[in-house]
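hey so i finally got around to running both of the ones u sent me last week. sorry it took forever, my laptop kept dying halfway thru and i had to restart like 3 times lol. anyway pasting them below in the order u listed, first the sequence line then the structure token line for each. didnt double check formatting much so if smth looks off just lmk and ill redo it

first one:
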Amino acid sequence: MTNNIKLQDFLGGVRAISPLIAAVVPIGLVFGAVAATKGLTPAETGLMSALVFAGGSQFVAMDIWTHPASWVGVGFAALLVNIRHVLMSASLGTKMAGFSPRSRYLSMLFLADEIWAMAEFRAKMARLTPAWFAGLVAPFYLAWVVSGVAGTALGAFLGDPVVLGLDFAFPAVFIVLVMGFWKGAETGAVLLASAAASVATQHFVPGVWYIAAGAVAGLFAAVATGSRKAEEATP
């Protein structure tokens, strides 16, 4: 009986993430094609996707990739891009009461924006379980690794991702995720502050600091709007 419940939970996670898998495949193909232009083989691309498993930082790494690669520069860029995972894991960790310490740690290793968003949505409606979370991770992880390898192998045949419109898959996914957390003017203020800080920093500061600037600006905007909302609610 217990195994049957776990299987149902797992399949429920698979169904929840399925629409986003259809969106992540073209992103993986684009990443693979970009990796091919930097001289990576399909095996190297697959290994990177399997070990790093972070689309944003992998794209940034390819953007600054040189031969030989500057591992310090690539690593620092990945750190800046993924620093948001500290906040994401802190938020999701409070909803993992049914997880053992070991399963909670393993789950965080596979945390991605899409997986985090779907887990947050689930936690609002029902108890988050390890089996349901595994249902999110397994197909999404596999799709990301396989599509990256395929993109590298077919890079010469895919052509320019911009011409095919595949480059829009990445922002399209995040627009959908943001809309799922929309709370009116409060969310709009956070997005506006983050976007303004990112654009300004990218224009004036070289490197990938615009990512950290956008995250910090969004965080401060969220704190400010939350404080103002609390003050208005105080009698």
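and the second one:
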Amino acid sequence: MQVSTIGLDLAKNVFQVHGITEDEEVVFNRPLRRAQLLPFFSKLEPCLIGPS
């Protein structure tokens, strides 16, 4: 499954990340700590990211 859009709920320490495909199927919905953000996004293909 290819993630097409990511919603990112901004916070100070824990961020909620929600990824969907073009068909609007949920691929992931998980909390990430600040230190986990860069490693997480570096593994993904380019996609649209917006605030949720």
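quick thing i noticed on the 2nd:
The longest strand covers residues 26-33.
anyway thats it, ttyl
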